[in-house]
Sequence to fold (384 residues):
Amino acid sequence: MSAIDHAASAAAVPIRIGEISTFVLEAPIARPVRNSWRTLTSRSALLIRVTDAEGAEGWGELWCNYPPRGAQHRADLVNLVAAPVIAGCEFAGPEAVFRTLEQALRIPSITSGEYGPFAQVAAGIDNALWDLVAKRAGQPLWQYFGGVSRVAVYASGLSPDEPGPLAAQALRNGFRAVKLKVGADPATDLKNSAELRTLLGASGRLMYDANQRWTVEQAQEAIAGFAEFGPLWMEEPLAGDEPVAAWQALAGRSALPLAAGENVRERAAFDAFVGSGALRFLQPDMGKWGGLTECLPLGRRAIAAGLQFCPHWLGSAVGLMASLNLLGAAGGQGWGEWDANPNPLRELLMPRGITVAEGFVTLSTAPGIGFAPDMNVLKEFAAR
Fold:
């Protein structure tokens, strides 16, 4: 059975791949963004444009936040390895392209040891193709899959360094939930938590992200100290490659519900988490693994199992709009991540009319992800 539902597959008439173009972007930022183990001193993005033989185009984005200059390397993988496999070929639809890339990139990924980057390349191309298909059908992506247009969002990326002003700005911008990065220093974490709880009031939502900081024993002890602030979840207290049994052990002792998924890869691993009872919130990144082809059915499986579906995203406006459309397509039962830090690649590329109001976003009714990026902005921030 197809990973994407039959209705959408039937609507995805054959695609003959035309040109595949990459756009490596880098934007300076005034203030670094820090988590428990690394600091971003600029913002990067890799956008992919795919055209078909009739001239229709779609835009996608893949994850490339680390290591520094990782976007250029992934662009090379697209241009030199992946694109020659599919350019000029006809496929039944985006899923058929994705399966072809899965097979073609398997040996190169094993030989190079670069499982993640190759998975990201396939995901970015897949995202662009689904944008193309929905645009060709004249429907927004969320509607193309029979979803909803209104989705809840939270402001993420609040680093341990004076998160209060950024949280206050997010609240003024319509958010009603924020996520704080923790795990670097216990005293700082508690001070920041108290400040944010005061800002949010009793009704505001607070989430935490430990960015894979602790062992099971360390996590159990650390999490207990955050319970008094009434957070919705603790994200990635453990490394993403810890066995499901370790997550189950922590969940059985944790004072808070657990969230994870951005650093999980492969369908079997995700399904193990969905069935484990260890997580309450599942957070795949469609630019890191699977694209929409894998992440949409995964989201539906998670929701059917009683989990909240909360797609991860930390990049430009292209990926953000795709990720929010993914959440809408899955039925909207969860939260979309929206980075609160200043980022010209999000702000200057954002389509008009997309705003946050009382913690929700109403997605565009324009076809596909709702827009195509401004080429002048792409030229301005082209990496050199």
Residues 6-138 form a domain with the Enolase-like; domain 1 fold (CATH 3.30.390.10). Residues 143 and 329 are 7 Å apart (CA to CA). The two ends are 45 Å apart (CA to CA).
